[in-house]
Amino acid sequence: MTDVAAPVNLLLVEDNGGDRRLIHEYLGTLGGGAFVIRETETLAGAFAQLKSAPADLVLLDLGLPDSWGLDTLSALRAVAPRIPIVVFTGSDDEEQALRAIKAGAQDYLVKGQLTKAAILRTVRYTFERYRLEDALRASEEKFRTIADFTGDWEYWIRPDDTVVYVNPACRAITGYGPEDFIADPELIMKIVHPDDQEVFRTHHRQAVGRGDSRTLECEFRIVSRDGAVRWMGHICHPVIGPDGSNKGRRVSNRDVTARKEAEARTAQAVEEVRRLNADLEARVASRTADLDGALRELESFSYSVSHDLRAPLRSLDGFSQALLEEYAEQLDDTGKKYLERIRAASRRMAALIDDLLQLSRVVRRPLACAPVNLSALAQEVAADLRTESPGRQVTLVVEPGLVVQGDGQLLRIVLDNLLGNAWKFTSRTAAARVEFGSRTVAGRREYFVRDNGAGFDQAYADKLFVAFQRLHAESQFPGTGIGLTIVKRILLRHGGDIRGEGRPGEGAEFTFTLQEAP
Amino acid sequence: MNVRRAPARILLVEDNTDDVELARRALRHNGHPVELLVAGDGVAALELLAAASADELPELVLLDLKLPRLGGLDLLSRLRAAPATSLIPVVVLTTSLEERDLEEAYRRGANSYLRKPVNYEEFVLMVRDVVHYWLSLNQRPPPAKT
Known about the structure:
The structure holds 2 protein chains of 2 kinds.
Chain A: E1 8-13, H1 17-29, E2 35-40, H2 43-52, E3 57-61, E4 63-64, E5 67-68, H3 70-79, E6 85-89, H4 94-102, E7 107-110, H5 116-148, E8 153-157, E9 163-166, H6 169-174, H7 178-183, H8 187-191, H9 197-209, E10 216-223, E11 229-240, E12 246-255, H10 257-326, H11 333-364, E13 370-373, H12 374-388, E14 395-398, E15 403-406, H13 408-425, E16 433-441, E17 444-451, H14 483-493, E18 497-503, E19 507-513
Parallel strand pairs in A: 1-2, 1-3, 3-6, 6-7, 14-16
Antiparallel strand pairs in A: 4-5, 8-9, 8-12, 10-11, 11-12, 13-15, 16-17, 17-19, 18-19
Chain B: E1 9-13, H1 17-27, E2 35-39, H2 42-51, E3 60-64, H3 72-81, E4 90-94, H4 102-107, E5 112-115, H5 120-136
Parallel strand pairs in B: 1-2, 1-3, 3-4, 4-5
């Protein structure tokens, strides 16, 4: 629409020349250019004029040479649906004027009463009114477009449960059209799924019945006209009039069936995962139990095997001793020596069995972890050694305050073996000296047991920790050859290691590490 | 039982015949006569005790823990449960491996233990320190802990 400040484009369709001149005079000269007037005498001429250039307003005489009465109006309206039309009518025919307005004219002027003021007023008002109506139409079109062109089912429901407006989307979602909902206010309740009726009723009572002023949401299923079940994501807002009165609720229902189904599938998947996890854990527990069972069986097997292996050794030793004691006179030195060797052999076997049992235990025992004072432990071990061989003079140096994290029982076995070896291999050394201490090398703590005894050939160092591999003759220094194997196993279990260095005749040093605390 | 002399009648419950022989030898070491009754397992021991009259009952029981059929610990419980035998001192025989069973043996009412092979000196010490002491307490067995 043209701006009111710009000149109004008038089209005058009048076959009477005198009337035309009158109009020109009143509208043309008045208002100084406010109106631009084009003229024509026929309807055909009017069509042509409008075709070539639009008009803001048409002044139309109904009695034209090529058209008569309201037909003229209808014809023009058909061609120009959006242009305001003011019709001229005879002074004695206001009926016609009113019919003309009903037929689409905006206003009328009575020919015999044409005054300057009347014409101006009519033209201006018509023009303004039509402009406003047009604006309103555009506005309505805008809002209706927004309301109608949405996928969500939306409606406005009054506090008395009547439905003011339902958008066309209801048809796609519910199978019922807006007319069905407006005709039957209970239809909304009827299509709610039986299992969700209670939920919806409660919500409705609160939102509409009590006029709650909050935005409220809920979810429920509907059964559409074709029987399909759909999930609705429902949200409604209060509608408040300009005077503050409660005008009902504006509702939006979104079809969330896909989301609900996805949620259900996710929940199912989660449940499945949970079930699988539980199943897995059950299996792990079962396997662990099996393993524990197997370990316990192995433990008891080793236990009974050792026990049963020892019994004959007891007999060997016992009866040999009995022979020595009761038949001493009947035996010569050789005989006695034979018996001694039998006894020695059975004692060696008993030691072997003990060591083997200890080795297997060391591997299987769960590792306890606590602070262990190695210095104190070393002193204890040394005290035991002194008790066992009271005649020996050994200088023992123990570095105090060496505390580590580990399994006290197993670490005791380590020191038993290392200090015991140092003790044993210095048995033929004059000024025997055994040291237990520590040092830090490349940021790592190391512990060592050093002696000045028989030592060993470094060339065979790789055999030190192999079971049953000995670097000395049994006759020189007794031993089972398992002790260091046990020690190495224990240290490995602690995340550490051990190495040995020796020089024949000068002594040996065994250095070990434990896992560094993080 | 005379608290100042070694027991004259001892029941040895032991299935290993070599261990029995060595024990017999150890217990007569000083020449003191000892009547050694031997049962090879718990069932035989119970039968022997059942057949004995009050003055035929042994004054001391040496009990090996590892026995066939009725085990040593179960036999111990039976001895303590039966009125006729509940006051007889019981000494369990163990190997170094079985020391962890000692706790259970004491719980069931054992008085002391001896390591195998039976050594006479240790036997005498045990009798003096433990058995005599216990008998001097009105011959009541130690209360069973449950």
